[in-house]
């Protein structure tokens, strides 16, 4: 059949074959669009590593984009997961049941932990650490994030009074990983423990506020600045966390462990058609979402951005690649992974160890200060509530005397 068509085209001309001329006319354009789509999709993870018997804590897993794709892939590989979510409700429970049905893995569990609330983060970490013997932990996969509309002119804060993006993207994640250090160090020296933290290419536009890392006293200019700065500061703090884990393990270990079995990795999954992108493009408006995003820009976004599944490939690569195992590492530095390959950091702050250490220490101090302030407020509210309850339950002397009469 192909030879007959080719012969007719050669001897009888192109016009003798129906629709061949339009096909030849449009083929270069379609090939060009296909090449762009293939390039923008990025590479796929090729490691076929099983995760049977491994236990991971996952944040941001319930998002209907990259997070869900990562959870599905890990569950199909046999991993047990503790998925942290802001609130356990009917929707989240239905999502969890759906993940179990799709993968045949019943070892997917939900735990409530709002990363924008430092008190909830401490409660979860304390509950996790308050266990003897120490619980198994093979890694923490951080994919959670908050990106507010860039046109937002009013500062939106968390329950602790921290700007919501800085609280969710930086303070909460930092607090969780810092509190979980005893669990990392308690793992056997032959266990490959991976701390994988996602970032965004917009961190290149961020600022590192070393003296005020939670931006409590900085003036609010726009949401974009705080989003990019939260991602930049988290990446910088992770570099110092890696050094702390190795140093503390070497100083306190009695069995010769090096601490290098616990690796911290910063992952940039690429530009995706995610809820954050929809919020930025639509500026939080439903009308703009329907017209601008879904109708006008979607063909271009489909062509130039990744789907959640394609973005998840870099995360899965970071979980499964043997390059991060202690036996294969040539140095102790944090690896930066983009498009399923290890790349170099671009900004000079990533090579300033003194800045990273100061940022880490100042963040701990500010978080402790905020926690003490909020604890005092909770105590006052509790005392007031107890006082009101006693006042309401106090017997009325007039009613008591009437009954006695």
UniProtKB/TrEMBL annotation:
Coiled coil: none
Signal peptide: none
Keyword vocabulary terms for this entry: Membrane, Oxidoreductase, Transmembrane, Transmembrane helix
GO MF terms, alphabetically ordered: oxidoreductase activity
Record field: compositional bias (Basic and acidic residues): 382-391
Keyword DNA damage: no
TM region positions: 284-304
Region (Disordered): 372-405
Biased composition (Basic residues): 392-405
InterPro entries, A to Z: NAD(P)-bd_dom_sf, SDR_fam
Domain of life: Eukaryota
Family: Belongs to the short-chain dehydrogenases/reductases (SDR) family.
The name this protein goes by in its record: KLLA0D08349p
